[in-house]
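Customer escalation, tier 2.

The customer says the design service returned an amino acid string that "doesn't look like it belongs to this structure." They asked us to rerun it and document both sides in this ticket. The original structure tokens are below, unchanged.
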């Protein structure tokens, strides 16, 4: 398998080969990535991947219903948890996003029902080496 240039160690290889660019239709998993992407802001994805299990434990297995009910004492526990990114704004964002996620899920009868197939299919083709990065970027821009 041809891998992207950013793949340089075991944790990236596992993520790249099993998750990156693969269509995802599981609301809980989509919420997990929403939280992790928010935590990653300004940091490397490797840091987040290395802390992923700690995040999973700290954030109730990424259960948006549980997270939406977090109170100040829960935030305090998260801020004290050395296994995760302890940034108050990022933690508050995860809690707020859980509420919006649940509202959106209810309104649209699920999150994963959106049609992301064209872009996901392109990512798979890119990962397999069937198209170049330049071709991917051009098609991606055309889809906007």
């Amino acid at each position: 398998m041809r891998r992207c240039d950013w793949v340089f160690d075991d944790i990236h290889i596992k993520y790249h080969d099993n998750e990156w660019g693969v269509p995802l239709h599981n609301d809980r998993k989509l919420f997990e990535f929403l939280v992790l992407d928010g935590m990653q802001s300004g940091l490397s994805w490797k840091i987040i991947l290395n802390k992923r299990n700690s995040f999973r434990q700290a954030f109730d297995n990424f259960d948006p219903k549980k997270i939406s009910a977090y109170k100040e004492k829960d935030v305090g526990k998260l801020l004290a948890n050395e296994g995760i990114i302890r940034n108050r704004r990022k933690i508050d964002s995860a809690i707020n996003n859980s509420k919006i996620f649940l509202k959106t899920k209810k309104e649209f009868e699920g999150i994963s029902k959106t049609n992301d197939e064209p872009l996901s299919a392109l990512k798979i083709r890119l990962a397999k080496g069937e198209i170049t990065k330049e071709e991917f970027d051009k098609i991606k821009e055309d889809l906007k």
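Tier 2 assessment: The sequence is consistent with the input. The chain has eight helices and no strands. The mean pLDDT is 88. Sent an explanation to the customer and offered a walkthrough call.
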